[in-house]
Write a structure and sequence with these properties.
Blueprint (H helix, E strand, L loop, with lengths): L3 E4 L3 H13 L3 E7 L6 H5 L2 E6 L10 H11 L3 E3 L9 H9 L3 E2 L4 H8 L1 H10 L15 H11 L3 E9 L2 E6 L2 H19 L4 E5 L5 E9 L5 E13 L2 E7 L6 H18 L3 E9 L5 E7 L6 H8 L3 H9 L16 E8 L1 E2 L5 E2 L2 E2 L2 E3 L6 E5 L6 E2 L6 E9 L2 H14 L1 E3 L5 H9 L1 H4 L7 H6 L2
Parallel strand pairs: 1-2, 1-4, 2-3, 4-5
Antiparallel strand pairs: 6-7, 6-8, 9-10, 9-12, 10-11, 11-14, 12-13, 14-21, 15-16, 17-20, 18-22, 19-21
Length: about 450
């Protein structure tokens, strides 16, 4: 039985995990860097231990320090949250070797699915539709050009070990491909210490739709519907919603069934997300699989009333899934925005600093996941996300209205935020009429 969980993360996701554990009667250990000594997650956990200086490399990415903290505090399991070490196969492997339960899938699956070219090959072999492209990695500019001429431009170059929107470039011609090849290669090496690439046909004007899955260690698996994550800036998600209004019922059913089939075929366990690109004709193609909880998981929780963090812990504990697919009903429409400490007028420059005043909105159907408080100093060292504002109502139009109301009520003083920019998105006619794709931000705001 899982009795004590060390949370290998910080910020709102650490707080989120602590709350789930508290409700389950499980003790928690918070780790923190010197920059986070006054962070909320250190106050809410049963125990807190400093693991290093502000730099992520010396703290939240420091495998040795984190595992020493787990041993020192007697934690029997580790929840990695998202980001940092959440998709690090070596970390999950070491946890297994030390008999510390990693709350996530087996390290072999993290390794397989973390390599995008191998993941694509695997999905293709089990019948999941994939975007036309290279069979595995490409090893030269000439090979990339040959493949591009076969599948036709535009094409997209991707770092095989990529993530977070980095290591991606689109080419509409041979000249652009020759130029972007070297750029992506260098960016991949710097960002991931792995410059391996693959190439795909670029699906123009797609929607980015992902399916949330749960699978226990006893062979049972389900999906919890889909999320539309198409509102992005530079491949970074800004707003997410469920259900995806662009899908017809037949496509929605097929997408869910294929996601569950994929999970069963590869023997996946715990929570995961299979991401697809959907074109204007409702054709969908596998893009990648995230082997962790997603930032946007709350929208799914709002329409299913299923606590995904608790399910992760139960699955890691060996419990059998309580639900079958026929039990899953989505009620209402949910939407999430990410409120960041940044200045949209200055190319979204991060704006750390001390929060001098804070007023959080409330009311029926409004949820806030955050770790900030009045007097808290947002450090310059980490991601700029301050909070996630989630709403749920009977329809998409009602959710938009509720989100606008909640954002108008939200006050964060002392630092700059993207609240006004989020309101501009919600007030945009193309967004309101569901007439958008992944290029929405660039098209509507020239960003």
């Amino acid at each position: 039985m899982i009795k004590k969980v060390l949370i290998a993360n910080r910020g709102e996701i650490a707080v989120r995990i602590i709350r789930a554990c508290r409700e389950m009667g499980i003790r928690t250990v918070a780790i923190y860097s010197e920059a986070d000594k006054n962070a909320l997650h250190t106050k809410l956990a049963d125990e807190a231990i400093c693991i290093g200086p502000a730099s992520s490399a010396k703290s939240y990415l420091n495998v040795k320090a984190i595992l020493e903290a787990a041993c020192l505090t007697g934690a029997d399991s580790i929840h990695p949250g998202f980001g940092f070490l959440s998709e690090n196969a070596n970390f999950a492997k070491i946890c297994e070797e030390m008999h510390i339960k990693f709350i996530g899938p087996n390290y072999r699956l993290i390794e397989l699915l973390g390599n995008k070219s191998k993941a694509k090959e695997t999905m293709k072999s089990i019948g999941v539709p994939v975007v036309p492209g290279s069979e595995g990695l490409i090893y030269s500019k000439e090979q990339a050009i040959d493949i591009a001429e076969q599948i036709k431009y535009p094409v997209i170059l991707k770092a095989s070990a990529g993530g977070g929107g980095r290591g991606i470039r689109i080419a509409y011609s041979r000249e652009e491909l020759e130029k972007e090849y070297d750029v992506v290669k260098q960016e991949a090496k710097i960002s991931f210490n792995d410059d391996s690439l693959y190439i795909e046909k670029y699906i123009e004007n797609p929607r980015h739709i992902e399916v949330q899955v749960l699978a226990d260690e006893n062979g049972n698996s389900i999906h919890l519907g889909e999320r539309d994550c198409s509102i992005q800036r530079r491949n970074q998600k800004i707003l997410e919603e469920t259900p995806a209004s662009i899908l017809n019922e037949e496509t929605r059913r097929k997408m869910g069934e294929i996601a569950v089939k994929a999970v069963e075929k590869i023997g996946y366990t715990n929570a995961g997300t299979i991401e697809f690109l959907v074109d204007k004709n409702q054709n969908f193609y596998f893009m990648e699989m995230n082997t962790r909880v997603q930032v946007e998981h709350p929208v799914t929780e709002m329409v299913t009333s299923i606590d995904i963090i608790k399910e992760q812990i139960k699955i890691a504990n060996g419990d059998v899934l309580f639900w079958q697919q026929k039990d899953i009903k989505l009620v209402g429409h949910s939407m999430e925005v990410r409120v960041n400490a940044e200045n949209p007028d200055k190319n979204f420059m991060p704006c750390p600093g001390t929060i001098t005043g804070l007023l959080l909105p409330g009311g029926n159907g409004i949820r806030i996941d955050t770790a900030i408080y009045a007097g808290y100093t947002v450090p310059p060292t980490y991601d700029s996300m301050l909070l996630k504002l989630i709403v749920c109502s009977n329809s998409r139009n009602e959710s938009i209205a509720k989100m606008k109301s909640a954002l108008a009520e939200l006050v964060i003083e002392g630092i700059q935020t993207n609240i006004d920019f989020l309101l501009k998105i919600l007030e945009n006619e193309n967004f309101k009429t569901n007439n958008y794709d992944t290029s929405f931000i660039n098209k509507e705001f020239n960003l």
